[in-house]
Amino acid sequence: MSDKTTPTIRQQRAALASSDEARREAVVQELEAIGAGEATDVIQWDDMGRVTLTPSDQLSDRARRSVKKVKVTPNQFGNQIEVEMHDKLSALRLLAKHRGLLEPNANDQKPSMIGINITGPTAKIVEIDGDDG
């Protein structure tokens, strides 16, 4: 893993709004790596369910950027492995917003409000004379 820490979402938003092009591009690359990262970049498992970690010197740059935490705890059965990835959905949402994919298109027609009045059937009241005369 690299020593570099991933900026928070708030810091990434600020960087994307920055006038510094190099800073914006660095954040975009970081978000793209997080958005494209997959657990199988870091761990593998076999048919028996045995999980192994990819050695850190074999991790791609994308994998290093997308991993938030790796925890290996020895136990009586071997090692318990926990891998936490950065929030992919937040990264993709922030990227989409930055690229203008979440902004409404001004040329699109917006639906208008339509009022609907519903009138039920008119009831006729019929009196039935109860005299059996």
SSE blueprint:
Layout: H1 9-17, H2 21-36, E1 43-45, E2 51-53, H3 61-66, E3 67-75, E4 78-85, H4 88-98
Helix pairs in contact: 1-2, 1-4, 2-4
What does this structure look like?
Helix 1 crosses helix 2, helix 1 (9-17) packs parallel to helix 4 (88-98) and helix 2 crosses helix 4. The protein has a domain at 9-98. The chain is elongated, with a radius of gyration of 30 Å. A two-stranded antiparallel sheet has the order 1-2. Strands 3-4 form a two-stranded antiparallel sheet. Helices cover 32% and strands 17% of the residues. It starts with 8 loop residues before the first helix and ends in a 35-residue tail after the last helix. The longest helix is centred in the first third of the chain and has 16 residues, at 21-36. By secondary structure, the protein is α+β, with helices and mostly antiparallel strands.
